[in-house]
Amino acid sequence: MPLVNLKYLMDRAEAGQYAVGAFNCNNMEIVQAIVEAAEEEEAPVIIQASQGAIKYAGLDFIVSLVKTAADKATIPVCLHLDHGTNFDQVCECIDKGFTSVMYDGSQYSLEENIRVTQMVIKLAHAANVSVEGELGKIGGTEDDVHVDEKDASYTKPEEAKRYVEETGVDALAIAIGTAHGQYKGQPKLRFDILEEIDRLIKTPIVLHGSSGVSDEAIRNAIAHGVRKINIDTNIREAFVRGVHKAIVANPYEIDPRKILGPAKEEMKDIIKEKIRLFGSSGQGKR
């Protein structure tokens, strides 16, 4: 089916009180793994491309891969720009066929973040493209976006309320203690902040850096308004694990398909596990 925008998925997730998995892609096997896993779970899904993925695969390749997969799928698929940090890049992604974009202005003042987000929304909504914004600074590294642990900061609930009211953003990523990349220990999330933001705004909330967050914490987050959950690191780990197993089993293998095929299956397993955890299994056929 044709690509859908993020608002389409978020409205249904809110009505059903579940979250939609947003999985990052970098190549064909990852795109296939995401869509095949979602099909098998009959779940809606968001495929994300970060700045690093776009540099690696190329914007046209990313769009073509995801559109091809979505056209063959029977479940709704959204193509989303993850952590777009400048206006020109966001515009290019909209022009190329993304159905959702994230403008990450969290490095700027609240006023500047609101100003640019308003510009992005005016352009995006005219093209039926959804917009995700961000407040607070999520620690760790997401390809080209890096925030030192000492510079990470929690989202202020009163600022979240103002930002949503003045921008009309379709989804809001907040910082409550998650981080991009691999965790050294179990993250401690500030559910008091999440609960206050959920009370103040009706906009769907996004949780970044969710690989490594406990199942209990994920369920608690969904119960308090989180409707989009980003997973990247777990997919990378699964990919490498699958490649490693294939090479160890046959060190002299020269057929890339026999190395990347097992990697795809490893990724599908973790993606399906997350889809079930998020409560979105079976929600893509309605």
Count of helical segments?
Answer: 11
The SSE order reads HEHEHHEHEHEEEHEEHEHEHH
Radius of gyration, in Å, reads: 18 Å
Q: Which range best describes the helical content: under 10%, 10-25%, 25-40%, 40-55%, 55-70% or over 70%?
A: 40-55%
Keywords:
286 residues, 8-stranded parallel beta barrel, 11 helices
Task: Please characterize this protein's 3D structure.
The protein is of the alpha/beta class and 286 residues long. The chain has a single domain (6-278), classed as Aldolase class I (TIM Barrel), CATH 3.20.20.70. The chain has helices at 6-16, 28-41, 51-57, 59-72, 87-96, 110-126, 157-167, 191-200, 215-223, 233-249, 256-278, and strands at 20-24, 45-49, 77-84, 100-103, 130-135, 139-142, 145-147, 171-174, 179-180, 205-207, 226-231. The strands form two sheets. It has an eight-stranded parallel β-barrel, surrounded by ten helices. A three-stranded mixed β-sheet has the order 7-6-9, with no helix packed on it. The chain is globular. The model has no long low-confidence stretch (mean pLDDT 92).
